[in-house]
Amino acid sequence: MTDSSVPATGTADRDLRSFIAGLPKAELHVHHVGSASPRIVSELAARHPDSKVPSDPEALADYFTFTDFAHFIEVYLSVVDLIRTPEDVRLLTYEVARDMARQHVRYAELTITPFSSTRRGIDARAFMDAIEDARKSAEAEFGTVLRWCFDIPGEAGLESAEETVRLATDDRFRPEGLVSFGLGGPEIGVPRPQFKPYFDRAIAAGLRSVPHAGETTGPETVWDALTELRAERIGHGTSSARDPKLLAHLAEHRVPLEVCPTSNIATRAVRTLEEHPIKEFTRAGVLVTINSDDPPMFGTDLNNEYAVAARLLDLDERGVADLAKNAVAASFLDTAGKARITAEIDTYTAAWPAS
Ligand SMILES: Nc1ncnc2c1ncn2[C@@H]1O[C@H](CCC(=O)c2cccc(C(=O)O)c2)[C@@H](O)[C@H]1O
Ligand SMILES: [Zn+2]
C-alpha cells in the first residue's frame, strides 16, 4: 500500500480536506474489483481459504505493495479470483457504492471486466443481474448513481475482446446501466490498434470509447487510442506530457484525461508525486478529471486524490470545486444530470465555510 496522503500541515489543509469530504463529486475512472475494501477482501479471503490473498487487514496492506505494474496486475488477478458467485458480485458492487456514498460521490462510471468473471465460470446473465440489482439498490438507498464501463483485459487477447463486446452489445446480456467501452491491463506488448474492430462494434451500438492509454507506455499509445479506438476520454494518458502536439490536440478537441495520481505512484508508472505531469496538463489547457482507479489497493480514496491534486496544482476550495465540475462535464450523464450535480457543487461551495 502506498501512503501518498497529504500531510496535515495546518488548519488550511484540514479545512480544505473538510471541504473536499463534503463536496458532491463524480468519479469516471474506478475499477470494480479494484474498489473492494479491505473488509470485503478479508471476508472473501476468509470464505475462500485456498486463495493466496491474506484475510488479515494488516497483512493485506503489505500484500498491496507493488514492485511494478506487472506485479500490480498479478495481485489484482488474485483478488479477481475471490469473486466466485453472482452473490459475491452483488455484494461487492453494493458495498463499493456504499463507500462512494460516504465520500459524497453522487455519480460514478465503474469499470467492470465481465470477461474475468465469465471465464471463471460465473454465468453471464447472473453476472448482469447481480450488478444491476446492486446498482438499483445503491441508487435507491444511498442516492449514488452508478453507470458501467465494460473493459477488455487487453493482455488476455482477442478472445477477451470478442467476449466483452458480445456481452456489451447483445440485448440478452447488455445491462441497462452500461454507457461505455474500455480497454485495461498492461499496455506493453498489447498494441491498441488490434482492438479497433471491437471498439467499432461497441461504438455502433451506442457506447462511448474510454480506453486506458499512456499509463505505462508512451504518447504514441494515446494517439492510437484517439485515432484507432476513437477515444472520447483517456484513462490516465500520463505520457501525453511528453508530446506537446498531443497535449495541444487533447486541449483543442476537449478530450479529458482521467488522472489518478496515487495509482501512478503505487504501480510505479511515475516515480514521485512531485514528478507527476498533472500541472503540465492543466497548463496546456487539457480538461483534467481526478479519479482513484483502485483505491483500497493504492491506500487512497477519491477524497484523498482531490487533496493530492489540490496540493500539486496549488488549488483553494474554488479550484477544487472546478475540478469536481470538470468530472461532471466529462461524464456521460445527460444534460439534466450534469446540471443537477453541477448545481449541487455550486450550492455547496457558496455555503462554505459551513457554520
Ligand atoms: N491502473 C490500471 N491500469 C490498467 N488496468 C487496470 C488498472 N487497474 C485495474 N485494472 C484492471 O486490470 C485488469 C487486468 C486484467 C488482465 O490483464 C488479465 C490478463 C489475463 C487474463 C485475465 C483474466 O481475467 O483471466 C485478466 C483490467 O481489465 C483492468 O480492468
Ligand atoms: Zn484504471
Characterization of the model:
Strand 7 (234-236), helix 11 and strand 8 form a beta-alpha-beta unit. This protein starts with 10 loop residues before the first helix and ends in a 5-residue tail after the last helix. By secondary structure, it is an alpha/beta fold. It is built from 16 helices and 9 strands. The radius of gyration is 19 Å and the shape is globular.
What is the gyration radius calculated from CA atoms?
19 Å
Small molecules (ligands, ions, cofactors) in the structure: ligand V47, zinc ion
Name the beta content range: 5-15%
Order of helices and strands: HEHHHHEHHEHEHEEHEHEHHEHHH
Q: Return residue spans where pLDDT drops below 50 for at least 5 consecutive residues.
A: none
In the sheet with the most strands, the strands line up as 1-2-3-4-5
Largest sheet report: 5 strands, parallel
Distance between the termini: 36 Å
- Helix content bin: 40-55%
Shape: globular
Structural class by secondary-structure content: alpha/beta
Count of helix runs: 16
Number of strands: 9
Average pLDDT rating:
95
Organism: Streptomyces canarius
Domain Adenosine deaminase: 24-347
Cofactor: Zn(2+)
Family: Belongs to the metallo-dependent hydrolases superfamily. Adenosine and AMP deaminases family.
